[in-house]
Amino acid sequence: MESKHEENLLLLSEEEQLLRIARVNKYMAEAELDYILVGDNVNLYYLSGRVFCGYILVCSDGNADYFLRRPSTLKADGAVVYRKLEDMTNAVAEIIKKKPGRLGMMLDDTPYGVIQRLLKGLGGDIQPGNGSAVFRKARAVKTDLEIQQMEMSGIKQTQVYRKIPHLYREGMTDIEFQIEIERALRLEGSLGQFRCSGAEMEIYMGNVLTGENADTPSPYDFAMGGAGMSPSLPVGANGTIIKPGKPVMVDMNGNFTGYMTDMTRCYVAGNPDEVVVKANQLSIDICRRLSEMMLPGVEAKVLYQIAEEMVKEAGMECYFMGHSHQAGFVGHGVGITINELPVIAPRSRDILNVGNCIALEPKFVIPGQGAVGVENTYVVQAQGPARRLTNAPEDIQSLT
After folding, report:
1. Backbone angles phi, psi at 25, to 5 degrees
2. Which pLDDT tens digit goes with each residue over 8-45?
3. What angle do CA 275, 277, 280 make, to 5 degrees?
4. Count of beta carbons in the 10 Å neighbourhood of residue 259
5. With contact defined as beta carbons under 8 Å apart, do 39 and 55 qualify?
6. What is the distance between the alpha carbons of residues 160 and 268, in angstroms, rounded to a whole number?
7. pLDDT tens by residue, 260-314
8. Which H or E run contains 55?
């Protein structure tokens, strides 16, 4: 008797999944890989539309094989259900034995111990290629469906950002303010998860900075730092009281669909200093200029150079992308994770393509004032300026 709880393992349409696999196959060919064994949550979601415990073997001929451990109620044609990892690797080994080829693994995304178990189970003297690099390149160009999901996240994130001034109460600390914003985001449907690629960065639902805390360096490669509430998570709000005239930078979670949009806006109780207003307007101007230049074939490093020139012309270079610690980029790809390709940095080798989704974040940290600037998520189009997905007002918003 069939369980009423049974669900399809694959939530993507066949057409959508084949499109994504085709993009993976393109970069597999460049890396001279015939197979990639995928078991990390981000790329399982990319290939199937859901996170599950198991693996997908992507083949260079456009096919994929599925290996499921749990939930056992998930079903897919030809899927192999296994209990022990060795059972899965034996099945993979049989597939590769029938049509020998070079295997790639998610070396950047899988713990070393798991990689060793996989290699032992597969047998033979396998020297796996790095499938993680293949998937980063494939995911950099979004399908129409992925862009639609990001558009939905952008709409909901914008709705919450418009409510932010009404969440403030006089005498609040930055963490109290952030908690109110988190609540509003969750009520609007935010998943709350802030996925980062790699093990070097972590954050909880975003970043709210005010005053001198904005100038506190963080060990993470984010544009902005902050001391955080504990050395175990040293980034963001630290309990600083929001003072009249001092900017409050809000860079909070935009994950409503599994695909994130990235947006930053500044708020102030009272009247901001002239240098704060100048820095915020410069950030807006940089975003507008770069979004007009974000066309297919443009080198990412050229965009950074333009931003740097605008900052120097305005005499704001000592505050650009930090003060005591400066970030080395002005934008980054965004999607299932918050840090994807392409990277808008001075030594970036990335070249823009139609379907890239890019967050531009030209920000400033001004001693004695705080962090200032905007961030928007854009889609690169075949013609014309990049399309903005995050449409909350960009001017500094009053909290009073």
Report:
1. -60, -35
2. 999 999 999 999 999 999 999 999 999 999 999 999 99
3. 105
4. 25
5. yes
6. 17
7. 999 999 999 999 999 999 999 999 999 999 999 999 999 999 999 999 999 999 9
8. strand 53-59
